[in-house]
User: What shape does this take?
Amino acid sequence: GAVVSQHPSWVICKSGTSVKIECRSLDFQATTMFWYRQFPKQSLMLMATSNEGSKATYEQGVEKDKFLINHASLTLSTLTVTSAHPEDSSFYICSARGPFSSYEQYFGPGTRLTVT
Amino acid sequence: GQNIDQPTEMTATEGAIVQINCTYQTSGFNGLFWYQQHAGEAPTFLSYNVLDGLEEKGRFSSFLSRSKGYSYLLLKELQMKDSASYLCAIVDSNYQLIWGAGTKLIIKP
Assistant: This one.
């Protein structure tokens, strides 16, 4: 149990376009989901915490107007990278707070974004 | 402030034992996770410690000393597939995960 999926697994887009990444909890309801970004050879960087039915909480330095997060249901959160630029190229990973504890996180497989 | 320290990179030989250390200073403590992450993939759960002592799970063991702000992950009978990054993460007082930078483990034949 506690499976999280992400779609797409990889995407290439042109500079200036927007890209939407979906994160789904497949067999449990996730009131809280997290979005991370990871650059090569670096650790995970938390971008925002997404709570179902309310606005996401963004970490310091993360532009909320550029990285739009919508947690519309208990099984789906989306991250939209608006007006993408090459520096936004990264590995984006979502996780969901598990159904059995208040702290364990289950990770999606990640989305590799390349902006050309 | 919050700080988690892990070695950046370690090298070990197939079949051997390796210990990856993690020291931390955080605002509150509600447990420590170890995750494994292969290149290009998401992290996968290895262990969770909240009480002092050693937790053994197959070839992997994790140790915690809360008074010392210290944990280690012990990998035995190393296999080539164990080549990965190992991430230490602390659950702080707000039940948020604070991540270390990770230790890249290289296994040589």
Remarks:
- Chain B touches chain A at residues 30-31, 33, 40-45, 48, 87, 91, 95-97, 99-102, 104 (CB under 8 Å).
- The CA atoms of residues 18 and 33 of chain B lie 18 Å apart.
- The first strand of chain B starts at residue 3 and ends at 5.
